[in-house]
User: What shape does this take?
Amino acid sequence: MTESLQDIAQAMVAPGKGLLAADESSGTIKKRFDTIDVESTEGNRRDYREMLFRTSPEMSDHISGVILFDETIRQKAADGTPLTQIIRDAGAIPGIKVDLGAKDLPRSSGEKVTEGLDGLRDRLAEYYDLGARFAKWRAVIDIGREGNRSVPSPYCIKTNTHALARYAALCQEAGIVPIVEPEVLMDGDHDATRCYQVTQATLKSLYAELYEQRVALEGTILKPNMIVSGKLCPTQASPEEVAEKTLKCFAHTVPAAVPGIVFLSGGQSDMDATIHLNAINQLKNTSTAYPWALSFSYGRALQTAPLHAWRGTSANVPAGQKAFAHRARMNGLAATGSWSADIEKQNA
Ligand code: 13P
Assistant: This one.
């Protein structure tokens, strides 16, 4: 039976569940492994990801889907079971990153545009056969530092959102739910108000492009940044301010037909990513003005703890799974606004 795009999208944001982003490219996973002094071999990458996917029962309880990289969707576990089967056995949906990375945007001052549209129709058909039922495409929007406030340019926003919509339309044609991810980076010295302005402009442009390119919003998921202060900003917005600004921004830009919004962690600490998601859902619970499910699609905020507990040693697999289980549980609670610092401590 073919599931509708809407059914898949809704399953991805089922209450108390979110996505595990385990789609680090070869370059990024090497950087992550460098932090624990483990060589990035195909076997080590497989063992690490198999450890995460076999974390029971938290994979079933709190992870609705896993975003994979091209290598992983084709890989088998040590016992020969395809990793996609392990994910499905845990009740989660396999997904696939299909963009080919952010490249220099020509004639810009260091901005990026995401590539990967050529040949995408054929790649999506193959990924569908390999079991993927949703996909991810990440666009990167930088906010210029002091002295370079003209970044992002309207040109950068427009080219990236146009590409996101072309990708989304192709996904839906292939029976795959597109996660549209326009990431406004938190690397700069900007304050949360500037993050709000840039995110608002980006989301306005994104939804205009999705409309023009006939994308059915019911069968999409948005993966945005939260509205936070830049890492180098001397004043950091409080969790309440992050929640208030984030929901206000979405209320002005994201149509109610979108079933769910799953945040990236984007360099926030594990705890900040959980605290902010919880504050956002607590505020959502006070009003009917916010119709979408609001959950997580974290990479680093779910994986940093298990990666460091594992350290490339099979004897550490139970410790790695315990660390992953804990963060999955805490973010599952935050996805309904029922996390607290006491629960965090008790369950650690
Ligand atoms: P982070 O949560 O580490 O930002 O990764 C999420 C992701 O998939 C970025 O594309």
